[in-house]
């Protein structure tokens, strides 16, 4: 049986003699794996949570900035407008968002979270925090410190990626 090999760095970020190269492939795999594992574990540990992630993302976007028109949500989330309209219809039917008129243009509709939608999103967030907290508890203190130290850089990376999208007209900057 051959020993597992470490992937060769796909692209090194900011290589310099003083700082080791960051393996972008491993970072991508870690982020993707974390999202997949979290999504699967939430469904296993909290079977009552049935909201599809696309609906959760609509609720999250509204929680960040509401009310919003369907087109604005589609742009923010980089989804097709008809997809967002369908998601909004399901969220309205579930009582999680309300449709009203846009304050700036009464001819246009906008949506906002209902109290039930806000509570459901809070519950979803708390379930994820409990799940991540339990997983963090399984790590040794050095690993937890390393993750904590990486959080500001991860947040900066997210802001940079959002900024690139906004610069190319693909997503509004927040």
Overall mean confidence score, pLDDT: 82
Largest sheet: 2 strands, antiparallel
Helix content: 55-70%
Spatial sequence of strands, sheet with the most strands: 1-2
Could you tell me the radius of gyration in angstroms? 20 Å
3D structure, described in words:
The chain is mostly helical. Among the domains are: 50-137, Arc Repressor Mutant, subunit A (Orthogonal Bundle), CATH 1.10.10; 140-168. The chain contains six helices and four strands, in the order ββααααββαα. The chain has helices spanning 24-45, 53-64, 70-77, 81-93, 115-137, 141-167; strands at residues 12-13, 22-23, 97-101, 109-113. The strands form two sheets. A two-stranded antiparallel sheet has the order 1-2. The protein has a two-stranded antiparallel ribbon with strand order 3-4. α1 (24-45) packs across α5 (115-137), α2 (53-64) packs across α5 (115-137) and α3 packs across α4. The longest helix is centred in the C-terminal third of the chain and has 27 residues, at 141-167. It is globular, with a radius of gyration of 20 Å.
Topology, please?
Blueprint: E1 12-13, E2 22-23, H1 24-45, H2 53-64, H3 70-77, H4 81-93, E3 97-101, E4 109-113, H5 115-137, H6 141-167
Antiparallel strand pairs: 1-2, 3-4
Helix pairs in contact: 1-5, 2-5, 3-4
In short:
The chain is mainly alpha-helical.
What descriptors fit this protein?
8% strand; two-stranded antiparallel sheet; mainly alpha; 174 residues; globular
